[in-house]
Design brief:
Layout lengths: L2 E6 L1 E2 L10 H25 L2 E6 L11 E2 L13 H9 L16 H4 L17 E2 L16 E6 L4 E6 L6 E2 L4 E2 L9 E5 L21 E5 L4 E5 L5 E5 L4 E8 L1 E2 L6 E7 L9 E7 L7 E6 L3 E7 L5 E4 L2 E2 L3 E3 L2 E6 L8 E6 L1
Length: 342
């Protein structure tokens, strides 16, 4: 029997006397539990006993706590490498990689880490959606683990089929429970994301439509606030959905919503600033500050007149109601400024 012990650490920037907020404590606990479920689902199938122990410095969690989850293997021999990477990408915490030297999967790592070594980190800590609470995403054969988080201007919803992994009471070890490991179907909608949470909540007052971009399926779906969309996943597969409020450009019929860099797991995390310039009589424009490099997409109900990156006109594609632009890595550490002119 192989035993591995992984420690999830939290960094506290205030004194040990500081009392935590309830949301911070619940966030720390939920972060640890989400990680535990993901780890058990994976290592249960490999016959490895994996013990996850969340630790909190000084015994207190605070609003400044950064949730950390265990290191991740990216190598090609790990069948659940992308599964784990997706959970880490939207965790809101730092990312640790524990590959053996020479066994990195750089294509996967590029979806997590930018060329300068930074990551697209969420603004909040990941939490399970309300309909997952008090359910068993490992052994009931029907529950899909859904976790949500917030970026600066978008939400993200992660869906994971963990059924069939985890702790066996009879053998007292993590092992595969194949009778539960099958396709799971679940419903999701924009309100699975707690938009009012965090230090910088996102206002969705008056929003009538959301743009949902599926990272794995590479498709766009428009949804009303309470409209359900169906997700079906094979065992130990996942989907990351970037959820973006749709805005009408003033004085036009154009509907617009930022999506982000679709080559990154946390697609919406690339959006650093968003400005609607509708005071110009001749035309409307939207300016988006983008951190990173790769394929930038936005939802637009109409084809833009032109697109610019740092004031230079660039080619773009318009397909399936999305504007597609290739964003180069900036010469400085600043974000690239992408402008859409209508």
């Amino acid at each position: 029997m192989v035993y591995s012990l992984a420690w999830s650490t939290a960094t506290i920037s205030c004194s040990s006397e500081s009392r935590p907020s309830l949301s911070a404590v619940l966030g720390t606990i939920s972060g640890a539990l989400i990680h535990l479920v993901i780890q058990m689902a994976h290592f249960g199938c490999r016959g490895v006993t994996w013990c996850t122990v969340p630790t909190i410095a000084y015994g207190w969690a605070t609003s400044s706590t950064q949730i950390g989850i265990c290191s991740n293997e990216s190598n090609l021999l790990n069948p659940c490498a992308a599964f784990h990477a997706a959970a880490r990408a939207i965790s809101g915490g730092p990312i640790y990689i524990s590959d053996t030297v020479g066994k990195h999967n750089f294509e996967l790592l590029k979806t997590l880490v930018l060329p300068d070594g930074s990551i697209l980190r969420c603004e909040h800590y990941a939490l399970p959606s309300r309909d997952c609470l008090f359910e068993d995403p490992l052994h009931d054969g029907k529950t899909m683990l859904k976790i949500w988080n917030l970026n600066k201007y978008t939400g993200v919803l992660g869906a994971f089929n963990c059924q069939g992994g985890g702790w066996c009471r009879e053998t007292r070890r993590n092992q595969c429970a194949s009778q539960y490991s099958h396709v799971v179907t679940s419903l999701a909608n924009p309100k699975d994301i707690e938009w009012k949470s965090g230090k910088k909540p996102i206002s969705i007052e008056g929003v009538q439509v959301f743009a949902l971009y599926y990272h794995q399926a590479k498709k766009l779906v428009l949804s009303k606030p309470s409209e359900n969309v169906e997700i079906s996943l094979e065992p130990f597969n996942f989907e990351l959905i970037t959820v973006s409020p749709v805005t009408f450009l003033a004085g036009t019929s154009v509907q617009f919503a930022p999506i982000g860099l679709v080559n990154m797991l946390n697609t919406g995390g690339a959006i650093q600033s968003l400005a609607f310039n509708d005071h110009i009589e001749a035309s409307n424009s939207v300016q988006i500050g983008v951190k990173g490099t790769g394929e930038m997409r936005v939802f637009s109900s109409e084809n833009p007149i032109a697109c610019k990156i740092d004031d230079k006109v660039v080619p773009f594609e318009y397909k399936e109601f999305m504007v597609v632009i290739q964003v180069p890595w900036p010469s400085s550490s600043n974000s690239s400024m992408v402008e859409y002119i209508f």
